[in-house]
Design a protein that fits this description.
Layout (H helix, E strand, L loop, with lengths): L4 H29 L5 E2 L1 H11 L1 H13 L1 H8 L4 E15 L8 E19 L1 H68 L5 H36 L6 E2 L16 H11 L1 H21 L5 E13 L7 E11 L7 H68 L4 H35 L5 H9 L9
Parallel strand pairs: 1-4
Antiparallel strand pairs: 2-3, 3-5, 5-6
């Protein structure tokens, strides 16, 4: 067995288990979530994407198409049996006297034949069979890659909606806080406790943030449209938000070389490209067979009958072997062999480009996960400190030790830190998914894990 055949078998098993899991488990989750029609969790969103996303369905159809390569290759090794029948009415006007006689004849002619052709020696057909295995392996790897891509694309779209929703909520909360500060500044100005510059600063901050709300609402609409594009239907349901503090997991094992080794062994896109290299290799072998002889066995049985005064009547049988030995073809075969070698070399370079790109993706996402964890932990502390700062400056404003501008600045810092914290959480989740995608380790359990990061679905009943 060729070393790449085991990859084909593994991918077929993975593909089968993937289908069973998705149609069994996730469909069950849909039954559970049917009682929660007002909320859409990630599991339900992914099931919709799995059934409706055209990019994934395209790869699924192409995989089914690729499975036919093997059937076609096997068919080329089997006997070809054909039956021919012909029945015709004929007119003959003969001016010469011969064995066909003179005069006009009108007659029916009936012919029937059964033939069998069997390739005995044709190496190109066996190479085609090997090629079909690589073509199927490539299609299987592409489908698995599309499935993992679907997880990442759905998660990116889903959590981006949550990100934009939280950004809009925080912007509105900041606007409300600034409104209260503005009213307080107006009161203090009327009482002569604050200068006009404090009132102008409060109004400017309020108007500036009012304009930001429109931008946040536009970003939310765009994010929702991106999700609908994947799941295939507009949902009136509300997305289930993230829990306040989900666990932050560092990449395990904590070793970049190990993750890159995983990628070189399991990245489905790379496996597909390896199969493409082997396909190009079979093309070389196939073109070389243009120099090789072919042997074909054939046999036929035929009968003929007509109502004329001449012509054959009876049966004939033929059996034989045909040998074809190429001698000269103008150099065309050698040219095709050279061309196939260049195409094989090009596919190897293409695979090397992909390999380096995958290693870079693994490295970038590996460190992005670590950096995001550190940033989240730092921002969580910053939010707590800024909340204390806002409270202290408000108290200081009442006591006369702080100004309205101090309160506005503290509020701005607080809500900026909250928005940054929300964005870093989103960045962490996506980087964690992309690391597993690039390493070829993304699977159904990760869907479950992501869903556990959401708040429990509340039944509408």
């Amino acid at each position: 067995m060729h070393p790449f055949h085991w990859i084909l078998n593994i991918l077929r098993v993975c593909s089968h288990s993937r289908t069973v899991f998705v149609l069994g488990f996730l469909s069950g989750c849909l039954v559970v979530s049917s009682t929660c029609a007002q909320q859409l969790d990630f599991l339900t969103a992914f099931e919709l994407a799995h059934n409706n996303d055209p990019q994934y369905l395209e790869k699924k159809a192409l995989r089914q198409s690729a499975l036919e390569y093997r059937s076609q290759a096997i068919a080329a090794l089997l006997p070809e049996i054909a039956a021919i029948g012909d029945s015709s009415w004929n007119y003959l006007r003969n001016k010469k006297v011969n064995f066909q006689s003179q005069g006009i004849q009108r007659f029916w002619s009936h012919i029937g034949e059964v033939s069998i052709n069997q390739p005995i020696l044709d190496i190109s057909r066996w190479i085609k069979l090997d090629k079909s295995d690589y073509q199927i392996a490539k299609a299987e790897a592409i489908l698995d890659q599309a499935y993992q891509d679907l997880i990442v694309r759905t998660a990116t779209a889903y959590f981006n909606v949550l990100l934009q929703q939280e950004t809009l909520r925080l912007t509105k909360a900041e606007l409300e806080a600034q409104k209260q500060t503005k009213e307080q500044a107006q009161l203090r100005f009327k009482l002569g406790l604050a200068p006009v510059t404090a009132l102008l600063e409060a109004n400017a901050k309020y108007l500036q943030n009012s304009a930001t709300i429109a931008e946040s609402e536009s970003a939310l609409i765009e994010a929702e449209s991106a999700l609908v594009e994947i799941i295939g239907t507009a949902q009136n349901s509300h997305l289930v938000p993230l829990i306040e503090a989900f666990p932050l997991e560092s990449p395990t094992p904590d070793d970049l070389d190990t993750w890159q080794t995983y990628a070189l062994a399991g990245n489905r896109q790379l496996i597909a490209e390896m199969s493409e290299v082997m396909i190009a290799k079979t093309v070389i072998d196939s073109e070389k067979t243009g120099h090789y002889p072919t042997i074909e066995g054939y046999s036929s049985f035929a009968f003929q009958d007509n109502s004329s005064t001449f012509g054959q009547r009876g049966e004939t049988g033929v059996i034989g072997v045909k040998v074809k030995l190429p001698i000269f073809s103008g150099g065309g075969i050698n040219s095709k062999v050279r061309q196939a070698h260049y195409q094989h070399e090009a596919s190897q370079h293409k695979m090397e480009v992909l390999k380096r790109s995958i290693l870079r993706d693994v490295k970038n996402n590996y460190f992005t996960v670590f950096n995001a964890i550190r940033q989240i932990e730092a921002l969580q502390g910053s939010v707590k400190n800024f909340e204390s700062t806002v409270q202290a400056t408000r108290q200081g404003l009442s006591a006369g030790t702080h100004t309205v501008v101090d309160v506005l600045d503290a509020q701005t810092d607080l809500y900026k830190a909250k928005r940054d914290l929300t964005e870093k959480k989103h960045r962490y989740l996506i980087a964690w998914l992309r690391l597993r995608l690039a390493s070829g380790l993304l699977h159904q359990d990760d869907i479950l894990k992501l869903n556990q990061y959401l708040l429990p679905v509340v039944s509408s009943s």
